[in-house]
Protein backbone atom coordinates (compact mmCIF):
# COMPACT_ATOMS: atom_id res chain seq x y z
CA UNK A 1 0.00 0.00 0.00
CA UNK A 2 1.21 3.52 -0.85
CA UNK A 3 2.43 5.48 2.19
CA UNK A 4 0.76 8.87 2.71
CA UNK A 5 2.80 11.14 4.95
CA UNK A 6 0.58 13.91 6.30
CA UNK A 7 3.47 16.22 7.20
CA UNK A 8 4.90 16.02 3.69
CA UNK A 9 1.44 16.47 2.17
CA UNK A 10 1.08 19.71 4.13
CA UNK A 11 4.38 20.90 2.67
CA UNK A 12 3.12 20.09 -0.83
CA UNK A 13 -0.11 21.99 -0.18
CA UNK A 14 1.82 24.99 1.11
CA UNK A 15 3.95 24.99 -2.04
CA UNK A 16 0.78 25.00 -4.11
CA UNK A 17 -0.57 27.95 -2.11
CA UNK A 18 2.66 29.98 -1.85
CA UNK A 19 4.03 29.29 -5.31
CA UNK A 20 7.76 28.94 -4.59
CA UNK A 21 10.01 26.74 -2.49
CA UNK A 22 11.46 29.82 -0.78
CA UNK A 23 8.03 31.17 0.21
CA UNK A 24 7.02 27.69 1.38
CA UNK A 25 10.13 27.43 3.54
CA UNK A 26 9.44 30.84 5.11
CA UNK A 27 5.81 29.94 5.84
CA UNK A 28 6.76 26.62 7.46
CA UNK A 29 9.93 27.89 9.17
CA UNK A 30 12.05 25.42 7.24
CA UNK A 31 15.04 25.78 4.97
CA UNK A 32 14.44 25.59 1.19
CA UNK A 33 16.68 22.53 0.99
CA UNK A 34 14.60 20.78 3.68
CA UNK A 35 11.41 21.55 1.75
CA UNK A 36 12.90 20.13 -1.44
CA UNK A 37 14.16 17.03 0.36
CA UNK A 38 10.78 16.34 2.00
CA UNK A 39 8.97 16.67 -1.33
CA UNK A 40 11.51 14.42 -3.05
CA UNK A 41 10.93 11.79 -0.35
CA UNK A 42 7.13 12.15 -0.76
CA UNK A 43 7.41 11.64 -4.51
CA UNK A 44 9.47 8.52 -3.91
CA UNK A 45 6.93 7.20 -1.37
CA UNK A 46 3.99 7.80 -3.71
CA UNK A 47 5.82 6.61 -6.83
CA UNK A 48 4.92 9.65 -8.96
CA UNK A 49 6.60 12.89 -10.00
CA UNK A 50 5.14 15.78 -8.00
CA UNK A 51 7.19 18.70 -9.35
CA UNK A 52 8.58 19.75 -12.69
CA UNK A 53 10.95 22.57 -13.59
CA UNK A 54 9.53 25.78 -15.02
CA UNK A 55 12.44 28.10 -15.64
CA UNK A 56 14.00 28.84 -12.27
CA UNK A 57 10.85 27.79 -10.46
CA UNK A 58 8.95 24.54 -10.08
CA UNK A 59 5.32 23.76 -10.74
CA UNK A 60 3.07 20.99 -9.46
CA UNK A 61 2.38 18.14 -11.84
CA UNK A 62 -1.11 16.83 -12.59
CA UNK A 63 -0.31 13.92 -10.28
CA UNK A 64 0.47 16.39 -7.46
CA UNK A 65 -2.89 18.12 -7.91
CA UNK A 66 -4.62 14.71 -7.89
CA UNK A 67 -2.84 13.80 -4.64
CA UNK A 68 -3.82 17.11 -3.02
CA UNK A 69 -7.43 16.76 -4.09
CA UNK A 70 -7.66 13.57 -2.03
CA UNK A 71 -5.40 14.92 0.73
CA UNK A 72 -7.84 17.76 1.45
CA UNK A 73 -10.38 15.19 2.62
CA UNK A 74 -7.70 13.74 4.91
CA UNK A 75 -6.88 17.17 6.35
CA UNK A 76 -10.56 17.90 7.00
CA UNK A 77 -11.04 14.55 8.73
CA UNK A 78 -8.00 15.20 10.91
CA UNK A 79 -9.43 18.61 11.86
CA UNK A 80 -12.69 16.92 12.86
CA UNK A 81 -10.82 14.31 14.86
CA UNK A 82 -8.76 16.94 16.66
CA UNK A 83 -11.88 19.03 17.36
CA UNK A 84 -13.70 16.02 18.81
CA UNK A 85 -10.69 14.96 20.86
CA UNK A 86 -10.29 18.47 22.25
CA UNK A 87 -14.01 18.48 23.02
CA UNK A 88 -13.66 15.14 24.78
CA UNK A 89 -10.75 16.40 26.88
CA UNK A 90 -11.85 19.98 27.57
CA UNK A 91 -15.49 20.20 26.52
CA UNK A 92 -16.59 23.69 25.57
CA UNK A 93 -13.84 25.30 27.64
CA UNK A 94 -11.00 24.77 25.17
CA UNK A 95 -8.83 27.55 23.80
CA UNK A 96 -9.99 29.28 20.59
CA UNK A 97 -7.55 31.59 18.83
CA UNK A 98 -9.43 34.25 16.88
CA UNK A 99 -7.87 36.38 14.16
CA UNK A 100 -9.87 39.51 13.31
CA UNK A 101 -9.43 42.74 11.36
CA UNK A 102 -9.28 45.94 13.40
CA UNK A 103 -12.92 47.08 13.39
CA UNK A 104 -14.19 43.55 14.03
CA UNK A 105 -12.33 43.30 17.35
CA UNK A 106 -14.38 45.91 19.28
CA UNK A 107 -17.58 45.48 17.25
CA UNK A 108 -17.85 41.67 17.12
CA UNK A 109 -15.18 39.78 19.05
CA UNK A 110 -15.28 41.68 22.36
CA UNK A 111 -19.12 41.60 22.59
CA UNK A 112 -19.04 37.87 21.73
CA UNK A 113 -16.57 37.23 24.55
CA UNK A 114 -18.82 39.16 26.94
CA UNK A 115 -21.78 37.01 25.89
CA UNK A 116 -19.80 33.85 26.58
CA UNK A 117 -18.68 35.12 30.00
CA UNK A 118 -22.26 35.98 30.93
CA UNK A 119 -23.37 32.35 30.48
CA UNK A 120 -23.72 30.05 33.48
CA UNK A 121 -21.39 27.37 32.11
CA UNK A 122 -17.62 27.49 31.56
CA UNK A 123 -16.76 29.07 28.24
CA UNK A 124 -13.90 28.87 25.77
CA UNK A 125 -10.66 30.71 26.46
CA UNK A 126 -10.67 33.18 23.54
CA UNK A 127 -7.30 34.52 22.44
CA UNK A 128 -7.46 37.47 20.01
CA UNK A 129 -5.00 38.35 17.28
CA UNK A 130 -5.57 41.48 15.22
CA UNK A 131 -4.73 40.90 11.57
CA UNK A 132 -5.49 42.37 8.18
CA UNK A 133 -8.60 40.92 6.54
CA UNK A 134 -6.52 39.58 3.67
CA UNK A 135 -4.18 37.76 6.08
CA UNK A 136 -6.90 35.67 7.72
CA UNK A 137 -6.65 32.65 5.46
CA UNK A 138 -2.87 32.53 5.64
CA UNK A 139 -3.13 32.39 9.44
CA UNK A 140 -5.75 29.65 9.26
CA UNK A 141 -3.70 27.59 6.82
CA UNK A 142 -0.60 27.97 8.99
CA UNK A 143 -2.56 26.85 12.07
CA UNK A 144 -1.84 30.14 13.87
CA UNK A 145 -5.53 30.86 14.49
CA UNK A 146 -8.56 28.60 14.81
CA UNK A 147 -11.21 31.06 13.61
CA UNK A 148 -10.80 34.15 11.45
CA UNK A 149 -13.01 37.14 10.72
CA UNK A 150 -12.50 38.56 7.27
CA UNK A 151 -14.28 40.31 4.42
CA UNK A 152 -16.09 38.36 1.72
CA UNK A 153 -14.05 40.24 -0.88
CA UNK A 154 -10.99 38.32 0.35
CA UNK A 155 -12.69 34.98 0.95
CA UNK A 156 -11.83 31.96 -1.18
CA UNK A 157 -14.60 30.39 -3.22
CA UNK A 158 -17.11 28.18 -1.45
CA UNK A 159 -15.55 25.25 -3.33
CA UNK A 160 -12.17 25.70 -1.61
CA UNK A 161 -11.83 22.46 0.40
CA UNK A 162 -9.53 23.99 3.01
CA UNK A 163 -12.08 26.25 4.73
CA UNK A 164 -15.66 26.44 5.96
CA UNK A 165 -17.17 29.92 5.63
CA UNK A 166 -19.98 31.41 7.73
CA UNK A 167 -21.50 34.72 6.56
CA UNK A 168 -22.01 37.00 9.57
CA UNK A 169 -23.36 40.33 8.40
CA UNK A 170 -23.59 42.92 5.66
CA UNK A 171 -22.03 46.00 7.25
CA UNK A 172 -23.53 49.22 5.79
CA UNK A 173 -21.16 51.90 4.55
CA UNK A 174 -22.08 55.44 5.57
CA UNK A 175 -20.48 58.60 4.25
CA UNK A 176 -18.56 60.88 6.60
CA UNK A 177 -18.82 64.59 5.79
CA UNK A 178 -17.36 67.66 7.49
CA UNK A 179 -20.03 69.32 9.63
CA UNK A 180 -19.97 72.42 7.40
CA UNK A 181 -20.22 70.48 4.12
CA UNK A 182 -22.90 71.95 1.83
CA UNK A 183 -24.64 68.55 1.65
CA UNK A 184 -24.32 67.64 5.34
CA UNK A 185 -28.05 68.21 5.85
CA UNK A 186 -29.29 67.46 2.33
CA UNK A 187 -32.26 65.07 2.12
CA UNK A 188 -31.84 61.70 0.39
CA UNK A 189 -28.09 62.04 -0.12
CA UNK A 190 -26.60 59.80 -2.82
CA UNK A 191 -23.02 58.88 -3.55
CA UNK A 192 -23.30 60.48 -6.99
CA UNK A 193 -23.93 63.84 -5.26
CA UNK A 194 -20.36 63.65 -3.99
CA UNK A 195 -18.69 62.83 -7.30
CA UNK A 196 -16.88 66.19 -7.37
CA UNK A 197 -15.63 65.92 -3.78
CA UNK A 198 -12.15 64.97 -2.66
CA UNK A 199 -12.04 61.50 -1.11
CA UNK A 200 -10.03 59.91 1.67
CA UNK A 201 -9.19 56.19 1.61
CA UNK A 202 -6.21 53.86 1.76
CA UNK A 203 -3.67 53.75 -1.03
CA UNK A 204 -4.14 50.00 -1.45
CA UNK A 205 -5.82 47.04 0.16
CA UNK A 206 -9.44 46.17 0.86
CA UNK A 207 -10.68 49.60 1.84
CA UNK A 208 -9.30 51.21 -1.30
CA UNK A 209 -11.02 48.52 -3.36
CA UNK A 210 -14.33 48.81 -1.46
CA UNK A 211 -14.44 52.62 -1.72
CA UNK A 212 -13.52 52.62 -5.41
CA UNK A 213 -16.04 49.88 -6.22
CA UNK A 214 -18.89 51.65 -4.38
CA UNK A 215 -18.20 54.96 -6.13
CA UNK A 216 -17.84 53.32 -9.54
CA UNK A 217 -21.18 51.57 -9.00
CA UNK A 218 -22.63 55.06 -8.41
CA UNK A 219 -21.21 56.24 -11.72
CA UNK A 220 -17.92 57.99 -10.92
CA UNK A 221 -14.28 57.40 -10.04
CA UNK A 222 -13.39 59.02 -6.70
CA UNK A 223 -10.58 61.57 -6.64
CA UNK A 224 -8.25 60.45 -3.89
CA UNK A 225 -7.06 63.55 -2.03
CA UNK A 226 -5.47 61.78 0.95
CA UNK A 227 -4.37 58.24 1.74
CA UNK A 228 -5.07 56.88 5.22
CA UNK A 229 -5.89 53.44 6.58
CA UNK A 230 -6.84 54.02 10.23
CA UNK A 231 -10.28 55.35 11.12
CA UNK A 232 -8.85 57.84 13.62
CA UNK A 233 -6.78 59.42 10.86
CA UNK A 234 -9.58 59.28 8.28
CA UNK A 235 -12.15 60.92 10.56
CA UNK A 236 -9.64 63.57 11.64
CA UNK A 237 -9.06 64.49 7.99
CA UNK A 238 -12.81 64.65 7.37
CA UNK A 239 -13.33 66.81 10.46
CA UNK A 240 -10.67 69.21 9.16
CA UNK A 241 -12.64 69.65 5.94
CA UNK A 242 -9.99 67.91 3.84
CA UNK A 243 -12.35 65.48 2.13
CA UNK A 244 -15.13 62.92 2.53
CA UNK A 245 -14.93 59.18 3.21
CA UNK A 246 -16.95 56.00 3.27
CA UNK A 247 -16.95 54.51 6.77
CA UNK A 248 -18.32 51.09 7.76
CA UNK A 249 -20.99 51.36 10.43
CA UNK A 250 -19.00 48.97 12.60
CA UNK A 251 -16.24 51.59 12.72
CA UNK A 252 -18.48 54.65 13.01
CA UNK A 253 -18.69 54.32 16.81
CA UNK A 254 -15.56 56.44 16.90
CA UNK A 255 -17.52 59.71 16.53
CA UNK A 256 -16.12 63.21 16.12
CA UNK A 257 -18.07 66.41 16.78
CA UNK A 258 -17.03 67.94 13.49
CA UNK A 259 -18.10 64.94 11.40
CA UNK A 260 -21.60 64.19 10.12
CA UNK A 261 -22.40 60.57 9.27
CA UNK A 262 -25.02 60.16 6.54
CA UNK A 263 -26.81 56.96 5.58
CA UNK A 264 -26.87 56.28 1.83
CA UNK A 265 -30.34 54.75 1.55
CA UNK A 266 -30.49 54.88 -2.24
CA UNK A 267 -27.06 53.36 -2.89
CA UNK A 268 -26.94 50.97 0.08
CA UNK A 269 -23.20 50.13 -0.20
CA UNK A 270 -22.15 47.22 2.00
CA UNK A 271 -19.12 45.21 2.98
CA UNK A 272 -19.76 41.57 3.86
CA UNK A 273 -18.12 40.08 6.95
CA UNK A 274 -17.50 36.34 7.16
CA UNK A 275 -16.09 33.94 9.72
CA UNK A 276 -13.87 31.10 8.55
CA UNK A 277 -12.40 27.96 10.08
CA UNK A 278 -10.38 25.12 8.66
CA UNK A 279 -12.70 22.58 7.11
CA UNK A 280 -13.77 20.12 9.78
CA UNK A 281 -12.87 22.34 12.75
CA UNK A 282 -16.37 23.74 13.27
CA UNK A 283 -17.43 20.46 14.91
CA UNK A 284 -15.32 21.31 17.95
CA UNK A 285 -17.53 22.44 20.88
CA UNK A 286 -15.39 25.46 21.81
CA UNK A 287 -15.15 26.76 18.23
CA UNK A 288 -18.88 26.15 17.73
CA UNK A 289 -19.71 28.24 20.82
CA UNK A 290 -17.53 31.14 19.67
CA UNK A 291 -19.14 30.99 16.23
CA UNK A 292 -22.60 31.03 17.82
CA UNK A 293 -21.71 34.05 19.98
CA UNK A 294 -20.31 35.93 16.98
CA UNK A 295 -23.49 35.14 15.03
CA UNK A 296 -25.65 36.49 17.88
CA UNK A 297 -23.64 39.72 18.01
CA UNK A 298 -23.72 40.13 14.22
CA UNK A 299 -27.50 39.65 14.27
CA UNK A 300 -27.79 42.71 16.53
CA UNK A 301 -26.44 44.88 13.70
CA UNK A 302 -29.34 43.99 11.41
From TrEMBL:
The keyword S-adenosyl-L-methionine does not apply. Keywords: DNA-binding, Transcription, Transcription regulation. Residues 4-61 form the HTH lysR-type domain. InterPro entries: LysR_HTH_N (IPR000847), LysR_subst-bd (IPR005119), WH-like_DNA-bd_sf (IPR036388), WH_DNA-bd_sf (IPR036390). The keyword Transcription regulation applies. Pfam families: HTH_1, LysR_substrate. It comes from the Bacteria. SUPFAM superfamilies: Periplasmic binding protein-like II, Winged helix' DNA-binding domain. Belongs to the LysR transcriptional regulatory family. PANTHER family: LYSR SUBSTRATE-BINDING, TRANSCRIPTIONAL DUAL REGULATOR HCAR-RELATED. This is LysR family transcriptional regulator. It comes from Streptomyces anulatus.
Amino acid sequence: MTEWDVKKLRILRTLRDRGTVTATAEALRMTPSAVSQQLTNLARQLGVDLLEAQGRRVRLTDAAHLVLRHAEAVFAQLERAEAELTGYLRGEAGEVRVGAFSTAVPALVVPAVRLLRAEDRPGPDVRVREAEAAQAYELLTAGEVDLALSLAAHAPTARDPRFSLFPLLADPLDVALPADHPLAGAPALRLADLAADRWIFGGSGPWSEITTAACEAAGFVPEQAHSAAGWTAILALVEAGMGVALVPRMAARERREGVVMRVLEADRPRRHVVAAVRHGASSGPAVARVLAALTDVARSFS
